[in-house]
Amino acid sequence: MLMIQAIINFFIPSGSGQAAVTMPIMAPLADVVGLTRQTAVMAFQLGDGLTNMIIPTMGALVVYIGVAKVSFSTYFKWVFPLYLMLMSIGAVGLLIATFIKLGPF
Questions:
Q1: Which residues lie closer than 8 Å to 3 by C-beta, 6 or more apart?
Q2: 1-29 pLDDT, tens per residue?
Q3: Is there a contact between 40 and 27 (Cβ–Cβ < 8 Å)?
Q4: Among 53, 54, 42, which Cα is nearest to 90's?
Q5: Which of 6, 35, 86, 91 could staple 30 via S-S, CB 3.0–4.6 A?
Q6: pTM (2 decimals)?
Q7: Cα(27)–Cα(23) distance, rounded to whole angstroms?
Q8: 17-24 long-range contacts, CB within 8 A, separation 24+
Q9: What is the pLDDT of residue 63?
Q10: 41-95: per-residue pLDDT in tens?
């Protein structure tokens, strides 16, 4: 779910738009495979939030690096290792949430 959300975030950079499109599918899918809905929401939040820092379709990111006068390729080269590290930490967090059956709250 984390990787699917990250990929979909490239095409739908709006968090609310992405939630409207994907969560009607992801919530029942989580129920079917035995995950709690909180874990599905956590996967959504990590996939959407962390990917926003590297996708060029995110308008705010383009403005930020434009104001800083940094090319996207330079920005990407420096931020991508951090992105991979944060996604790895997020994946470990999702594994922990899955094993402890996080929720329902």
A1: 47
A2: 999 999 999 999 888 999 999 999 999 99
A3: yes
A4: 42
A5: 35
A6: 0.86
A7: 6
A8: 18/44, 18/48, 19/44, 19/48
A9: 93
A10: 999 999 999 999 999 888 889 999 999 999 999 999 999 999 999 999 999 999 9
**Cα 65 to chain centroid, rounded:** 20
For residue 22, give the amino acid letter: T
Name the amino acid, one letter, at 3: M
Tokens found for residue 9: 């975030």
Nearest to 101 by CA among 44, 42, 24, 25: 42
- In DSSP notation, 39-99 reads HHHHHHHHHHHHHTTT-TT-HHHHHHHHHTT--HHHHHHHHHHHHHHHHHHHHHHHHHHHH
Taking only Cα atoms into account, the Rg of the chain, rounded to an integer number of angstroms, comes to 15
Q: Provide the token pair at 73.
A: 């390729």
Other C-beta atoms closer than 10 Å to the C-beta of 45 total 15
